[in-house]
Write a structure and sequence with these properties.
The protein has 81 residues and is α/β, with parallel strands linked by helices. The protein contains three helices and five strands; from the N terminus they run ββααββαβ. The protein has a five-stranded mixed sheet with strand order 1-5-3-4-2, with helices on one face.
Length: 81
């Protein structure tokens, strides 16, 4: 699978997923991203209208906290968990 650079703004996070944000984990990932960059892409699926987050909520929030405008992502065709 190829990774793509997408804008953080175009990633839709379902409301029920937002409850899973672990701020301590976000901070830890943000520190790692500052030192080493993004190591693992997030996973998104295209539902025809938008890119929906499948995996990588903490990475997405860490990138957002760092003021990043883009993030590496894998586009998947089916929901994977």
């Amino acid at each position: 699978m190829d990774t793509y650079k997408i804008t953080i703004e175009e990633v839709y996070v379902p409301a029920k997923r937002k409850r899973d944000i672990d701020q301590a984990k976000v901070n830890e990932i943000a520190e790692s991203m500052m030192e080493d960059g993004q190591k693992v892409p997030i996973m998104v699926r295209d539902d025809g209208k938008r890119l929906v987050l499948v995996e990588g909520l903490q990475r997405l929030e860490a990138a957002r906290a760092l003021g990043e405008e883009t993030i590496q992502a894998l586009k998947v065709s089916a929901r994977q968990r």
